[in-house]
Design goal:
- By secondary structure, the chain is of the alpha/beta class.
- It has one domain: UDP-N-acetylmuramoyl-L-alanine:D-glutamate ligase (3-Layer(aba) Sandwich), CATH 3.40.1190.
- The protein contains eleven helices and 13 strands.
- The strands form two sheets. Strands 5-4-1-8-9-10-11-12-13 form a nine-stranded mixed β-sheet, sandwiched between helices. Strands 3-2-6-7 form a four-stranded mixed β-sheet.
- Helix 6 links the parallel strand 9 and strand 10.
- 48% of the residues are buried.
Length: 307
Amino acid sequence: MRIACVGQLVADVIVKGVTHLPDRGDVCVIDSVNLKTGGCALNCAVVLDRLGADVGLFGLVGDDPQGRFLLDEIAWTGIKAAGVKVRGDTPTTTSIIVVSEDGERTILYAKGSMESFSLSDLNLEELAGWDLWHIPGVSKLDSFDLRALLIQGREMGRILTIDTDFDTSGRWYENVAPYLEHLDYFLPSEGEARAISGREDPRGMAEFFISKGVRNVVIKLGAKGAFYRTKDREGHAPGFSVPCRDATGAGDSFVAGLLFGLSEGWDIEPCVRFGNACGALSVTEVGAGGAVRDLTGVLEFMRAQST
């Protein structure tokens, strides 16, 4: 099964070793600053490629140093990037990610190209050749007619999945409601699912989304693992115990693992467990998904954790 990741490509400036955020006009000495690839779609595509999936990337970057950096990094992978468009009238989306000593993040986000990314930037003929369409970070796609794309995908018989991220507008439910009935898989985090559904527990959240027409729901619970719900069953797959150095992209790594399992024809429960393993490995190194190096490494990690 061929997987297309559509949406956010971001240049991540990762600031590591931050003990505190300084007062205005003050200075905080840090450990390091690194430029990394980021954005939900690109993070997911990178991990899928490392796992051995056939993956394509569709998005928009600016004709600027950050955009050229992303394209150069993608060129070193096996990701098929014919669907990435370059425009000179918009800067590449860029994040400054401040990582504290316990691995948690504070993010400064410049919307850039993702603010203007629209269906007109998308090569629909190229996208039609992919079996599963994954569109993450939907709250950041301000100009993108996602509902129209999902309707086209449904008519083509494609498997459709979306992931959410922090909605700065606060219109959590309103911004995803038009998409839910079209989805084969909805993959929010626990906090996002709570904000969208108004429910407090994962079971209640999942029931809410199923009632809105979603066919399958997987709710990411961080270190606690993930909760899944289909039309006829539900379950909780516990997480793995690992030291957390940087949580950047952990959710994207989880989703990549889950989608890889689906592309291999696995049942939902092993897909979720494999996603948990990818997410856990991701937090053990700085940068999104860096510790997820290949399929063999993830499987060996899972075996070691089970003994």
